[in-house]
Design goal:
By secondary structure, this protein is of the alpha/beta class. The protein is 53% helix and 13% strand. A five-stranded parallel β-sheet has the order 2-3-1-4-5, sandwiched between helices. The chain is globular and about 45 Å long. The N and C termini lie close together (5 Å). The model has no long low-confidence stretch (mean pLDDT 95). The structure holds shikimate-3-phosphate.
Length: 175
């Protein structure tokens, strides 16, 4: 196993779990959003504001291809990464994809407190945010569910989820 991709909606815990998994596996952790910001010397919010979402998706796609050449890495992707171009195939072909599946209610609670740096939701009221989560997740589910491992991340604490994932990662089908 050389690459593990964590996929799922904004606020699903990809970064927290990604860091934990990387530490336990002794892999390098890469947050794709941070990688994009470093390589382009620009914050995600600035890319959206100056060039728009389509331009961001092109950059995200190119950066995904770059990180796919790294070995022994856990990569937490952006919420939209698997849903554009052939990104989900690229990830499935180059490593193990894990979908952190979270209910709309939990996502809403988490994202209400974490909108500021997320250009797609930063100006939304609570009602608009709830609609956005419902509509966007309905469209994205078909990409997310192409992951090899799907894990509910609602109730359990990150340590428990991490341990469960480690045992799944080490099953013969996923190694
Ligand atoms: C996005 C999610 C963000 C970031 C960008 C777009 C999305 O990443 O890539 O703001 O389309 O869901 P996180 O899922 O890490 O917040």
């Amino acid at each position: 196993m050389k690459r593990i991709f964590l996929i799922g909606f904004m606020g699903s815990g990809k970064t927290t779990l990604g860091k934990m998994l990387a530490e336990k596996l002794d892999y390098t952790f890469i947050d794709l959003d941070h990688y994009i910001e470093k390589r382009n010397v620009k914050k995600i919010a600035a890319i959206f504001a100056e060039s728009g979402e389509d331009a961001f998706r092109e950059i995200e796609h190119k950066m995904l291809i770059e990180v796919c050449s790294f070995e022994n890495v856990v990569i937490s992707t952006g919420g939209g990464t698997p849903c554009y171009f052939d990104n989900i195939e690229i990830m499935n072909n180059s490593g193990l994809c894990i979908y952190l599946k979270i209910s709309n209610e939990v996502l809403l609670k988490r994202l209400q407190k974490a909108k500021e740096f997320r250009p797609l939701i930063k100006d939304k009221s609570d009602t608009d945010l709830a609609c956005f989560i419902y509509e966007t997740l309905s469209k994205r589910e078909k990409y997310y569910t192409q992951a090899s491992i799907i894990t509910p991340n609602d109730e359990e604490n990150p340590d428990e989820i991490c341990n469960k994932l480690l045992s799944l990662i080490h099953t013969p089908a996923n190694t």
